[in-house]
Description:
Elements: H1 2-12, H2 16-21, E1 24-25, E2 29-34, E3 46-53, E4 61-62, E5 72-82, E6 95-100, E7 120-124, H3 134-144, E8 152-159, E9 162-171, E10 199-203, E11 214-217, E12 222-229, H4 237-255, H5 271-284, E13 294-298, E14 304-306, H6 344-351, H7 353-367, H8 375-400, H9 406-427, E15 442-448, E16 464-469, E17 475-476, E18 481-482, E19 496-497, E20 502-506, H10 509-516, E21 522-523, E22 532-538, E23 544-551, E24 566-569, E25 582-585, E26 601-604, E27 611-616, E28 621-628, E29 633-642, E30 644-648, E31 655-663, E32 668-675
Parallel strand pairs: 2-8, 20-21
Antiparallel strand pairs: 1-4, 2-3, 3-5, 5-6, 6-7, 7-9, 8-9, 10-12, 10-13, 11-12, 13-14, 15-16, 15-24, 16-20, 17-19, 18-22, 22-23, 24-25, 26-27, 27-30, 28-29, 28-31, 31-32
Helix pairs in contact: 4-6, 5-7, 7-9, 8-9
Amino acid sequence: MKNIVLVLTLFLFPFSSFAQSLSSSNLPIVIIDTDNSMQIPDAYKVMGNMKIIYHRDGSRNSLFEMNDTNFLNYNGRIGIEIRGSSSQNLSKKPYGLTTYEADNYTNNNVSIFGMPKENDWVLNSIAFDPSLIRNYLSYDLSRTIGEYSPRCVYCEVIINGSYQGLYIFMEKIKIDPGRVNIVKMTKADNSVPNLTGGYIVKADKTTGGDAVVWSMFSYTGYVEFLHDSPKHLDITSEQSNYIYNQFLSFQNTMTARNSSIVNGYPSIIDIPSFVDFMIINELASNADAYQFSTYFHKDRNGKLRAGPIWDFDLTYGNDLFFWGLDRSHNNVWQFDNGDNTGAKFWKDLYDNPTFKCYLSKRWKELSAENGPLNYTVLSKKIDQIISHISEASMRENNKWGTAFNINLEISYMKSWLQTRVSWLSSYLGNYQACLNPSVPPLVITRINYNPAPAVGLTDNNLEFIEISNNSYQPVNLTGIYFKELGLGFQFPPNSTLAANDRLYLASDPVSFKKVYGVDAFGKFSRNLANDSEKIILADAFGNTIDYIEYQDTIPWPVEADGNGYYLQLKDINLDNSLAENWTYSANIALGIKENLAGESVSIYPNPTRSKVNIESENKTFTSYEVIDLRGRKMIFADGINSGNFTIDFGDLIPDIYILKLTCKNGEMIVRKINKLPVN
């Protein structure tokens, strides 16, 4: 039987190395054929075709299915080139590729292996790593603790008929809503607020024509910084100077040991991202950390953030031993080991008592029993990864000799990791000073994430967020900001919110006031997503004040999705993270304080094509008026003296109208009515 399969394989796939090395795999199989079998260069991309054989149900993938569209996760054009730095010196090459449309020019944004749609990808060659798992494990850990890192999938690769071994198919670090979710700048963004972001910068060595933009001192020498996005050739002098000054200001505050939330380092950097970046790199004892492959990013009106993590070959006790290097030890701090220590601010952060407190607190949380960085949990995760690639690792070793004793390597790595976790725990112990930080009683009580257009406005963007002070004391708002990427705003120094008061942040304060009649406290950058978004209000040190992740699907009130309504919390004392505690509202009189639990009045149907019913058991109305968004009175009635009646909107043109109901006790109820076309 084996001979029959071999003959059939050779007949269908006439490349000897192709046939002898691989016929099926539990991993996806990536097949790349460059045009005219061109050799893949370093300096530019050559065109070709790529097929990915992938069974979504986890069953085996076979080369016999390379023309079966049922099992092809991708089948189309690509441009491909060699990438990387030191890894280029090896026989097994790393690659960068772009997915293209059939015209060989238009980017083809596609979802590969279920990852968010994009066109730039990396085939990581797993260089210098006899365990084959160091990069994959580290990226997975970073995502597990809540930070973005490139998503990745193990696969086996065939290029121009030649088996190339085990690779990691992964996302390239890039500005994109599904990757580094910050604004993509243009050359026109040269004044505030657009000048403030978004940027991706890295500390790294220069390769592929990258230019050093500035250098910063370390405690052992200096570090070179490069623009990643915008690129060096695309960034303007105003933009380059702005982002350089952010780093310079950050270092100056650290040198001055300035921890003030007004003008110290908490006002410049997103502390949680720096904490997590250090923890992942120090857990792995990354020999390149801080000096090379160290990314930073900053969104518009946002803080400077560390990450995403990248390049974890020389970690967990591994190094370029054949070059005489041995730096990844389990009893050192990589920011203070005399080699590749990175910019001075890394050690300065660790030496700052407040930052170290939060670093220690986060480490204890992550390494606790059942925590993602607990040694037992880590050991099980390693076993799962090794089991997943065990079959392919043998073919990889037969091809390249890169995993000649993987079991011994994993045993060593686990032993090293157990010691490392214990060592870190001994140095990151005391966090009592920041154990239970006091956060203000601020509550997000309204969200207009997908507003209906307003007639007569040049800008229809009426998104807003209402923040309420649920206390009898004023709240100092200094340094409070939105921690999650996608929404940019930081409250200015010495701003306050009065007791039991509320404020509004709007995407367009001018339009907001035209429609709602009140001033917005400030303008947030970006836009709220129309389907789902995580909103985290945090203090200057990143401690969560309020957390909401709304959806445009049930059980959330779906009426708030583009129908002229917004989300409204039923009662300020309810848990606003639960969908059941939200309703929808069209009340346009935001300046009038009202019971957040809602009025005991039914106004329906809304939207309407003709009549609107008003029903209340305990309110008596004396009059009402209907006005349009230009302020013109369209319908008026007086002397009603009833809690139940009907208003006819049938003669009004389709538009948004404001209904004002006046109660006998002088109270006014205001609602927005959406008039639809008559059938």
